[in-house]
Amino acid sequence: MSLTRILAELVLYTALDEISDEAYNAAKKVILDTIGCTISGYNAPGIPEVIEQMREWGGKPEATALIHGDKLPAPNAAFANSALAHALDFDEVHAALHIMVSVFPATLAAAETVGASGKDLLAAVVMGVEAASRLVVSFLRRKPQGGYTGLGFLPSTVVGGFGTTAAVCRLWKMDVEQTVDAMGISYAQACGNRQALYDKTLTKRLQPAFAARNALWAAALARRGVTGPIEAIEGRAGLYRIFRNIDPCTAEELTEPRDFFEIERCWIKQYPVCGGTMIHAAVTLGQERRFKAEEIERIEIYLGGAKKGLTTGPFVLGRNPQPCAQFNAAYHAALGVLRGDANIERFTDDQIRRDVEAAQLTERVTLRTNMAEKPPHRCEGVKVIMRDGRTFTKFARPEEGLFSMPLDRVVEKFHHLAEFSGICPKEKADAIRQGILELDSMRDISDFVKECALLF
Q: What is the spatial distance between Cα 135 and Cα 140, in angstroms, rounded to a whole number?
């Protein structure tokens, strides 16, 4: 049995009543966070242009572009909604995945085309996340062979495409063979590398959208009888060998029994940046000490022994200030220490350009692979050296930069994002939140989609 078939059976054959209440509740919470990110990202750089292009292309009115309310072909609606949700890089994370920004837009579009219930949508989300997460966990356990690093691709889009596609197939009530074909067709379109991130360009925020779009293309073609590779995961040119040069996982790894669903292990981001641990240390220290830039000699940051990474290197205010700031550790340290916060309002293009003091302070930030103060296990930290010789150090644990979905904190973040958007008054935000929390009793998902057409 191929590994794609194992995942297909997992997603298709798990009955509604086999999914725990904890998993359904977790799904509601990550959907709430994803919708909040969608609302706040509606006007982020590059996003109006995406919507304009979708409108210009037009097409069969199958599914809704959230916020704007336009009816578009399902793949285009999924693409637009994914782009909005990921625009500010504030969406949830699981292991190495930003998974909800592919799974949710794709399943929402698929659900709308068939008038699926809220409970069916929730189940598809749970199982799509389950398949992608089980796959990525086994994928990352193995070390690449022959000096191959495999760091240049995006697991969110390449690995996430398998779970996203299977979730769409579940909603469209496709059989196992069709779903295996669809996952293979999706893999044939596998996309996502980090060059857009390295270059700090707007394309970074579109890459999960390609996976969401591809999932709907793949499922639609497979439903019509187009065949796809059945060994897309373990084959000679399958996921494991192409993207990490490693032997594939076993069937036992993918089906390992557990007493939870992977969606329960999603983490909600506290800051709209890549990472969150070191910046939390910097923010906490900034709140405690209220530093002034002219008093600081330099700042040292510790990123768990990393010498190079996605966020290291000098801060440069390039063509796109927002991603330049979001993906630069020096900026995170300078902003956190100097301002004592790193809220979403700090990461608009205009605000980044205005905060010249924080940008200049980045020139005095250096990366350390070790520090005199031994950090606690798995911690990252920041050390501020003052011109008068005093030093102040703060470390943070990974879970302090993220949080594991208590409902009150997710609701608080959601309302903050709705207010930040400037287009979602509190009463509308309350209605959207309530609709999400009552999804399991909604007979037709279209009723919820109408609530989210804020600009229509």
A: 9
